[in-house]
Amino acid sequence: MVPRPRLRRRVRFNPEVTYFKPAGVPLKQLEEVTLSYDELESLRLKNTLNLDQKEAAEKMQISQPTFHRILLSAREKVTEALVKGKAIKIEKRG
């Protein structure tokens, strides 16, 4: 069975800063987690603009369950980076 093609998601935020790391630790000593633009946009819509998941999903032109999965993934990655002292790299996918 072939999976259905992935739809383009609307991301209206282009970050100027695409890397965060703990202060005082050389980059070569750090592990990193990669946060996609989709994941960053989900965090921005939900946590910065305080939209509910339905409104945020509509802005990204995706279903609410898909938005929820993206948001959970983003929160897990950011939490892992903060708790385990990892760097966060933000990049486009595909």
Describe this protein with a few key phrases.
94 residues; alpha+beta; Arc Repressor Mutant, subunit A; 44% helix
If you had to describe this structure to a student in words, what would you say it looks like?
- The protein is an alpha+beta fold and 94 residues long.
- It has a domain at 36-91: Arc Repressor Mutant, subunit A, CATH 1.10.10.
- Helix content is 44%, strand content 13%.
- It is built from three helices and three strands.
- The chain has helices at residues 37-48, 53-60, 64-84, and strands at residues 19-20, 32-36, 87-91.
- Strands 1-3-2 form a three-stranded mixed β-sheet.
- It is globular.
Topology:
Elements: E1 19-20, E2 32-36, H1 37-48, H2 53-60, H3 64-84, E3 87-91
Parallel strand pairs: 2-3
Antiparallel strand pairs: 1-3
Helix pairs in contact: 1-2, 1-3, 2-3
Précis, in short:
The protein has 94 residues and is of the alpha+beta class. It has helices at 37-48, 53-60, 64-84, and strands at residues 19-20, 32-36, 87-91.
Tell me which CATH architecture of the domain at 36-91 applies here. Orthogonal Bundle
Radius of gyration: 14 Å
Largest beta-sheet details: 3 strands, mixed
According to DSSP, the number of beta strands is 3
Would you tell me which CATH topology of the domain at 36-91 applies?
Answer: Arc Repressor Mutant, subunit A
Q: Helix proportion of residues, in percent?
A: 40-55%
Secondary-structure element sequence? EEHHHE
Strand order of the largest sheet: 1-3-2
The low-pLDDT segments are none
Shape: globular
Sheet/helix structural class: alpha+beta
Number of helices: 3
